[in-house]
Amino acid sequence: MKKLFLLVLVTLVCPTIKAQETPIIGEKFELNPETELNPTIVLRDNYNFYLHTVTNTFGMLAKHEITFRKFDQKNQLVNTYTKDFKIDISTLHNHLGSFELDNNKVAVYIESYANKSKKTELYQYVFDKTTGEFSTKVVASYPLANLLQMGTFRVNRSQNGSFIGVVFEKYHSRKEAEEIDCMVLDSQSLNEVFKKTITYTDASEAHGFTVTNTGKIILVRYPNSNKEKKYLTCVDGANQINKTVEEALGFDNPKMISIGSMEYLVAFNYADKRYPRGNYTHIVFYDFENGRVLKNTPIDFKSSTEMTAIAIDKVFIENNEIHLFVEGQFKNGIIPSKSFPNNPNMGDPKYAFGPCRLLIFNTEGDYKSTVNFDNRYYGDYPFYHSMGVVKIMNDYLVQTGGFSEYSTIYKVAQDTKSIANYSPNYNITNNVYCRNVNQLFWYNNDTRMLTIARSDKPNSFYFASMPYTK
After folding, report:
1. How many Å apart are CA 236 and CA 442, to the nearest integer?
2. How far is Cα 219 from Cα 18, in angstroms, rounded to an integer?
3. How far is CA 452 from the centre of its chain?
4. Contact status, residue 35 vs residue 383, Cβ threshold 8 Å
5. Which stretch of DSSP H or E encloses residue 125?
6. 306 in helix, strand or coil?
7. pTM higher than the cut 0.85
8. Which residues have CB under 8 Å from 179's CB, separation 6+?
9. pLDDT in tens, 359-410
10. Does the N-terminal peptide bond of residue 344 adopt cis geometry, omega within 30 degrees of 0?
11. Using CA atoms, how far apart are residues 11 and 334, in angstroms rounded to an integer?
């Protein structure tokens, strides 16, 4: 009887083990990387995942659409949900960000400039996977004199994901005081935490903002005169505090991180320059509570003189170290002009993502080391990023591949002292070169499978999952 039981048990278990060791390759689906932008994987569980994109094109074939494609455990496309956010043919739209709220919902923020109704508005579209429906809400609305006198919406989320910050920089002439409306939303309930109007009467300009992990808004201000100093404004429901930056440096795409109870602003900057000139030379840690630059460290970033932007993609605090995964963007040639496609003498700049790096600091902001990742093929902006990062227990997996039969993955130990090529050893392309969508890359802790996205020809994509063994 025992032998029979063991035989039945082995018969049941072995096929399961074999299935887990076999790559799962989904059927191909259509997606236009020229028009469907900002691809992200959201709302993952053990049964489904969703690919989210936004289409915002103009002209005769204008299309303004939010898309969520639903896939099953076998990486097969099972449903597609769309929302047309066009107001009318004369309204301009911009996608300002999409944020996963919980296991079931994603909020998408679209600003609109409606010349017909003379309004500029921020729309919030929330997709709920439990119903497959979208809800719509106007978060903020302002009168619009004309398309030459319109303000600017900006949306950002705190590094811990708890808060969503919204600012509206109102249009003003040089002789008028500048007003900025600030609002913070709870990222789960989307309820308003606070709303406050900030007035600036000095000769300074807005240069971006960020949101702290405690729900405050930090506004970056640059003076219009070289004799004045830059400063930061901290805004919460009760107070408005200015912090002067004594050093001659700038802040590019700042992020706020928390180490214990302390909050630090981290940003690439342009040492001794008032405005950026494509040269990313330093990275700054600013102690906001004490109003001082903690460290401003020179960074040897390859091709730094060619960079048009550098983004801090992911932040991890591990083993008393700060790990910053960063990705560059640079001008990479000329493409035919979209406005004058038939004129060979006209062209638009072509941009690419890369290179990508892991920058390591201690918790005092002291630079320790850099991990360089090989980017043989840079990612074509804006769809193909040059890097995707997954954290698995004590290791990082970093995908940087471009065109290949196999996925190009680096394995970095959490102490960052060892780096190696990780080869899944699964040919998932039938020896056909494919293109990686590096940022669409994740790991399922329960199934222990890595999933990647690839394109085998224009507008043709598929997902493939592979067992991960350390």
Report:
1. 35
2. 55
3. 18
4. no
5. strand 119-128
6. helix
7. yes
8. 170, 172, 197, 198, 199, 200
9. 999 998 999 999 988 766 678 889 999 899 999 988 999 988 766 655 678 8
10. no
11. 60
